[in-house]
Write a structure and sequence with these properties.
GO terms for molecular function: oxidoreductase activity. By secondary structure, this protein is of the alpha/beta class. The chain is 25% helix and 27% strand. The chain is built from 8 helices and 17 strands. The strands form 4 sheets. Strands 1, 2, 3, 4, 5, 6 and 17 form a 7-stranded mixed beta sheet that branches. It has a 5-stranded parallel beta sheet with strand order 8-15-9-10-11.
């Protein structure tokens, strides 16, 4: 059997694309090995009718809805390779037979690369986060640390100021803020430090103190950090173009530079997005895929 479309990635972009294509009566092979990036967090926010849903519950509901459509098939094995064929694609997995499809949607998202700081992994997604829009409300009015080694920390700080006025900014040994930026932040009683963080201390998933390499500590109950993000799309031999952040270059409909290959969600941007934004991108790409399949029918 040759599927109309293979979708690699079962996050909100891939799942919403599968839903749209299933409702369009297209045959879909949905590859998802259940390793979502947001699995570390306690809840997801900003998605209308699903605000505060746990990642596991979101996936449960999504799969319940998507698999109502008999033309959508879930494949759990990990995709290890993809070959471009003359008239489609061949998807290779680690323990299944190759599957062929006419179209391909890459919705593999991102992987967080966290700084190597003791205690960070245990607290990440619980009291240390990266997105103020996703978790700022839950940390409102608390004493927060903002840890970033990138110049964007200035923008992040200004953004967080609306959620909490008790902010401690740490650049982890980097000199990335200008004197003018430091003065502006200091004028609002925002502390800026270039010290290096030695460890995060807490219990029961709650941050309590931040320790620096000089031995000093500050009390904090939460905060925001800026990880590095690594695109999980490891199929560049297909020949698609990537942008400066590692995302797959597409047009506004999700079409890549390779005929028949589409991408959606964080796989196209190389930076994180909210669930609702990724889901919308999956829907747009799915309608574009269906239009191409429709034209091929006539």
């Amino acid at each position: 059997m040759v599927y109309d479309c293979a979708i690699v990635g079962g996050g909100p972009a891939g799942l919403n694309a599968a839903l749209v294509l299933g409702r369009a009566r297209r045959t879909v092979a949905l590859f998802d090995n259940n390793q979502p990036r947001n699995s570390v967090t306690h809840a997801s926010h900003g998605y209308l009718t699903r605000d505060g849903v746990t990642p596991s519950e979101f996936r449960r509901i999504a799969y319940e809805e998507v698999l109502r459509y008999p033309s959508v098939k879930h494949h759990a094995p990990k995709v290890t390779d993809i070959h471009k064929l003359h008239d489609g694609f061949e998807i290779i997995t680690d323990n299944d037979k190759p599957i062929q499809s006419c179209k391909l949607l890459v919705a593999t998202g991102l992987k967080d690369i966290l700084p190597h700081i003791p205690g960070l992994t245990e607290l990440y997604g619980k009291s240390l986060f990266y997105c103020p829009y996703c978790d700022g409300w839950e940390l409102r009015d608390q004493p927060l640390i903002v840890l970033s080694e990138y110049p964007s920390v200035y923008h992040m700080t200004k953004l967080l100021y609306n959620w909490s006025r008790d902010l401690f900014i740490c650049t982890n040994g980097r000199s990335i803020l200008s004197d003018e930026q430091k003065q502006i932040l200091n004028s609002r009683n925002i502390i800026v430090s270039e010290q290096t963080v030695a460890a995060f201390h807490g219990s029961e998933d709650k941050l309590q103190q931040v320790e620096f390499t000089d031995g000093s500590r500050i009390d904090r109950t939460g905060g925001f950090i800026t990880p590095q993000w690594q695109p999980q799309a490891a199929f560049q031999k297909l020949g698609f173009k990537i942008n400066e952040t590692g995302g797959i270059v597409t047009d506004t409909l999700g079409k890549s530079t390779i005929p028949g290959l589409f991408a959606a969600g964080e796989a196209t941007t190389g930076v994180p997005s909210q669930l609702i934004v990724a889901a919308a991108a999956g829907s747009i790409a799915a309608t574009s895929i269906n239009m191409e399949l429709m034209e091929g029918d006539f």
